[in-house]
């Protein structure tokens, strides 16, 4: 998409009219995933692809139609039983394509900052949503607020797809996130780590399990993880930070509860700009760990970032319940949640940290 964005940015600068077609949903086997795009200029130039060749000609004509009418077009393409060579997907799948005339906020996509672009599915309106601000409008303030909040949550998770707008039952938007999923780093190859890896995967994280002991850190023991790394935890975390693979969405969970692993690892983790750092252990282990970390040079401010004993008080007993308690805590931390029962608090159920900050 970056190549297309650079071309669209050039068209914007030159005042060239164009239309953009985006795959918004896929069912069954299809050559391209949601977010695949093709753009067609008023002069007939095409860039990008929505199907790898199956329906390019038909989508090209839809873009030309959008340029002529200035309106939004939605079209579904699937396999034709009557004629396999008719317009359709011979792979047997179905794709839905949304076509809109430009301009498109292409310049935002040429930067490295994560961004989500939200298109109204029926009608004009494009919003460019960043973590702390947004540009563009649908023309309706209530729809803008709802779409921005949902788009920001999808951007945070690195997800792309169609959303229903909460305040308007008849309004849908397609959100395309230009960001990788957030990372969940689990240190300690134990049963609780396996359960937490599965929980993190369900929540949309890219999960890494790391342990220095090769006999325990194996992919077979952690099928819910995207990767299993054999390395000293502090060395691995420092290396990931050095190569820029961590960000303000990253969650670090230390489950080793062994000082020789915990202290060097937490010394690194608590000085990184990550979203959450939690460590497993009893209260006695926690107090001993704090003393060791202070001796290692960490300040009270740095130690205040540590969530330990890790997790919320759910009365958890099993590894799966413990994983749920941990996930609940880091979700609340990342979303500015109170972690209280909703029945005990007032105000909106769904809230957005940027909107709250802007109102203060």
UniProtKB/TrEMBL annotation:
Superkingdom classification of source: Bacteria
Pfam family for this entry, one: XdhC_C
Domain XdhC- CoxI, residue spans: 11-78
Domain XdhC Rossmann: 184-329
Protein name, as recorded: XdhC family protein
